[in-house]
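Weekly sync notes, structure subgroup
Attendees: PM, AL, DS (notes)

Item 1: joint prediction request from the bench team. They want all two components modeled as one assembly rather than separately. Inputs as received:
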Amino acid sequence: MNTLDIFFHVLGTAVVASPVLLLAVMGLTLLFNRPLSETTTVRITQTSVLLSLIPAIAILITMLATGIRNVPIEFGNWVTIPEQAFHFHLKFTFDRLSIPFLMLSCVLCGVVGEFTRRYLHREQGFARFFLFYAIFYCGMVLSSLAGTIETLFVGWEMVGLSSALLIAYFHERENPVRNGQRVWTIYRLSDAALLIAAITMHHMVGEGDFGGLMNSGIWPEGTAAVTSSQALLVGTLLLIGAAGKSALFPFSGWLPRAMEGPTPSSAIFYGALSVHLGAYLLLRLSPLLEASLALQMMVLSLGAISAIGGALMSRVQTDVKTSLAYASLTQVGIIVVEIGLGLRYLALIHIMGHATLRTMQLLRAPTLLRDYNDLENKIGSRLQQQPWSGVGWLPKPIQRWCYRFGFDRGFMDIALDRWIAGPFVGCFLACNRMEERITRFLSREPEPNVDSDESGFDDSMPQDITTAA
Amino acid sequence: MSELHFPWIECSILVPLLGAVWLQLRSNNERELRDTVVICVATLLLTIGELVDFTMVGTFEAHDHWQFLSWIFPPDVFVIDELSAFQLPLAALIFMVIVLSTLRTKAPRFSLELALISESLVLATFSCRASWALIALLIASTIPPFLELRRRQRCTRIYCLHMGLFAALLVVGYGWLMLSDSGTTAILIPGALLTAAGLLRSGIFPLHLWMTDLFEKATFGTAILHTTPLVGAYAVMRLVLPIAPSWALQSIAVLSLFTAVYAGAMALVQSDARRMFCFLLLSQSSLILVGLELVTPTGLTGALSLWLSVAMSLTGFGITLRCIEARISRFSLDEFHGLYSQMPMLAGFFLLTGLASIGFPATIGFVGMELLIEGAVEVYPLVGTMVVIATAFCGIAVLLAYFRVFTGHENRTLVSMRARPAERFAILLLTLLLLGGGLYPQPGIASRYHAAKELTRLRHDTPPGDVPAHAASRGHISPAAANIPE
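Output from the run, pasted for the record:
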């Protein structure tokens, strides 16, 4: 290993270790019931972000100076069973795709961390927010730099969990909690597709390394090392995973629900980073898309439908955060179309620009009325709002349908509830009733009375709490 | 056979048994719980000593230094091998944390004597090789829950029906096996009977009603103790795995897989917390059986790793639910309880153990689950993916339960519901094990792989030295494979 390799290795380790340490500190202090003060929490968080960002910049500068385009950082096998050719390889890749996305994550996480310091000042769940934030940040860094699909999956899951928990941040109300649950449900099911893709990939190329799927591992020039049908199979599974994470059609219904969380988390997750993670995955595996025309068409269609749907829905929303959420969806749909067309650099630039703009818009959203007020005071008159006439040329019934389509959020939630969740729950509730009936028949017991039993010591009796304490 | 440096196995079996006698003689309710905790800790230390000693000996199997139970059981019945070496401390740990998390107010109705007797029986079962002694122990371990149900004056019909059938299948199956010729198709029928017994004890669909019934009618602690050590899976490992042909086991794996998906989906629609826990456990234990029945080294390694993870994490999940029940009584998952602010530590632990049980990254079950999925897909490329679906259902159920119990509205009670020191200790211990095993998984996986390899080898080899006299003379079953003592 020469000096440059050691240099890269040290910096790369710092980039990855910093968020992991942040998560360890946050988790252990809460586990041992020693919560940190607000100032300490924010300082540790900012330090961690800087300790990732600065080495990442140093790596980028060195890469530009030396002309190296791909820096793999290997930590060896986390788990290995050599005889079964099973290994969980810890490999992180710094290249033209991962470094910009990593830096974007660090910058936006830093900005949102600082914003949250004031926004959630003296809130009861301040420490909880920063714990979930640490999980998210760690997940983002791992996902951005992942060199293998297993590492990506670890980061992906962490992002999913933190998203669901942050949506339910205001957990004393039912609505955020229900929305958090819904998001988690969609994430789990779409993540299942990603996991199956990972296993399928292992079976096809004998490893989970992204490089194994490409003949030349350097992004974006790689070409797929699998056949067209294999690419279609893995690509379809990955597309389902990406669609769930990026709220593409038909999973878009969770995006406005996610806005129930505090504004900083909405900004960073659903406006900036998390919502682009699906697109990032497609971008990382873009050579795979080119191996199958059918897959490419699927990506293009999904992107186009999501973009058009998002555009229609964003125009009829009544609150600013939801409107911004659908505007994000429109842009993500366009990014997916760009990926489908093979415009990889354009898609990457689009992600960065859009994420930054949307974070700013979402962070300003709570003070929108005040901003308008200031603006009107300064210009001395009311701002004139021109009605949007994009569909004015359409017949009235179609216009009305478009309005209903947008207002009912594309009927996606209704369709999922009616055609998938409803029958599923109905079927298993029937099974449950059947089981209970059989149990009652066999035991010949009357309906259990949970209020008391003969012993006078039933589980249902509230116990003496003071003794418990 | 190699020998340990101390009679760890027999001591670990006798200590809880003598402890139960001690509790019966003293009948001092005030100190009963404390004494039981001390006995459980001592037993756990003995089993850990056993594991350490066995690791130092560095062999596939070993027996005690002295055998002072040889007047009851035939010599070499109690043997520690790579399969049971980890199960013994695990079982002792489960009993210890359940006892530790028992409130003093609950001690009179959760029989500590029966818990200690159960511990002794479970440890003896896990130390026992395939023999009539194992059959007797498997049957005996079904008695303590029965006694509790009787004491609580609840209907025992469903439990008796299932456990009676379990006992009958074991006795007939093993007896038939003893009389059958090895290497012929004649062992298929006794093999099928023993398999049915193992599946029944594991609660495989449609023979799972006794589990939901037990969770409903027995105390939560007893139900957890009777189900989480996964004695049914152990019975399959000892009695069926060595003799059954691969095609038969792999066919049964489909049934286990169906149970995993069915139970995962059922966990989603439960309104009673105990039933939800029961189905969650059923789904995860069925996944373990899937791995065991795949009989490939990868699948077996995944199942053995997951066994440790599921037993630990679901015990943790169960004790959290039990702690909550002890504070607010039995509760429904149809409504929100908003207990987060009252018990933040229990909330965090509930989430952690729930996620660990589904093999979430950085917890002990993650790699085991990956291996299991890989093994399942290897054997059944399409059906194998249902493992992922089952896990997804369980993941949704875990977070659903978390939200229903800890969030949804503000609970403004002024009464403290925080975890007691003993509960905190149990929580911290399990948390460290779940996260420690997840962050540094290689030693555990390597050891489980070695065990899986040996078990696979034993299915095919029959070293002459291991053939028992009575079976070998009649040219019966492949005894080394069945691990039958001489």
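Discussion: Residues 1-128 of chain B form one domain.
Action: AL to compare against the crosslinking data before next sync.
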